[in-house]
Amino acid sequence: MTLALALEQLLNGIQLGVMLFLMAAGLTLIFGVMGLINLAHGSLYMVGAFACAAVAAWTGSFWLGLIASLACAAAAGAIVELAVIRRLYDRDHLDQVLATFALILIFSEGTRWLFGDFPLYLDIPALLQGVVTLPGDASYPVYRLAIIAVGALIALGLYLLIGKTRLGMRIRAGESDREMIGALGVDIRTLYTLVFALGSALAGLAGALVGALQSVQVGMGEPVLILAFVVIVIGGIGSIKGALYGALLVGVTDTLGRFLLPQLLALFVDPSQAGMIGGAMASMLIYVVMAVILAVKPRGLFPPAHA
Fold first, then answer.
1. Torsion over CA of 17, 235, 197 and 187, rounded to 10 degrees?
2. Which of 47, 221, 248, 280 has a CA-to-CA distance to 70 between 20 and 30 Å?
3. pLDDT tens across 194-231, in order?
């Protein structure tokens, strides 16, 4: 394995980690502030991808599609919170799971009704087409580097929002003691809607960005949601810092595992079988990593101080 190939796979892992961070950050905000298990978060990822693909097709502008993905996912999240989620805060987690699972079915069938069963495709904008040269004379797509840069900027923005603003102070207080901030005059219902819309917008942005790398289709959010849950368990439920580190760990582990394990197995078994066995083992690898981390740190790598 050459240095260039190893660097390319590492960047692929970081890019996957950034996408998972956008999903997991919204998910951990919602769970941390509201104590809500939201299985429909992957559907908001799908909403963002379809909104971006549809608007880009209508207007010819990927950038307008990206704005539409943020707006549509945030609006869908706010509507869901007002119409459904608001009635679930005082219910047990089983009711939350059942209700948000029903939302998955509603979003899937609604999207299928609007766009049909055929996938949509997004073109990478001209500004971000092309490749850059890595050490070792390998090439890497500019668009994937742009996704990494966007993730870094959003991580910085969330750090500043949560740690340095009045809204962030209220979000942190809501995580610690929602009854107290309600008693102090904070409109907790509006805060919940804002947090849910913010988390939904992040999921929609992730869907839009990844939509240019793969087809946009119904049900695309559920596999990503599973990985996002793994991320927040590893990082610490309710921790944005944990979501970032957990996402990068999962992304790099998954990508390098799928790349390296088949090559290692080919030294011991028939190469035609090594790919299949290695792929299956790589799929389990992140769960092995999660189990090891939880055995050492049951609350995750960076649990919130109030947890």
1. -160
2. 248
3. 888 999 999 999 999 998 888 888 888 888 888 888 99
Q: Quote the distance between the C-alpha of residue 241 and its chain's center.
A: 14
Residues in the chain: 307
What separation in angstroms does the CA of 149 have from each of 127, 209, 239, 265?
15, 12, 21, 34
Q: Which of 13-17, 94-98, 135-139 has the lowest mean pLDDT?
A: 135-139
pLDDT band at residue 46 under the 50/70/90 scheme: very high
Is residue 159 exposed (0-12), middle (13-18) or buried (19+ Cβ within 10 Å)?
middle
Band of pLDDT at residue 179, cut at 50, 70 and 90: low
Q: Is residue 239 part of a domain?
A: no
Mean pLDDT of 178-192: 72
Q: What is the DSSP string of 139-192?
A: EEEHHHHHHHHHHHHHHHHHHHHHHHSHHHHHHHHHHH-HHHHHHTT--HHHHH
**Amino acid identity for residue 159 in this structure:** Y
Q: Are strands 131-134 and 138-141 parallel, antiparallel or unpaired?
A: antiparallel
Number of folded domains that form the chain: 1
For residue 191, tell me if it sits in a domain: yes
State which residues form the domain around 161. Answer: 3-218
What are the structure tokens assigned to 30, written together? 């919602």
User: What are the strands, taking DSSP E only, across the chain?
Assistant: 131-134, 138-141
pLDDT tens readout for residues 262-272: 777 777 777 77
261, part of any domain: no
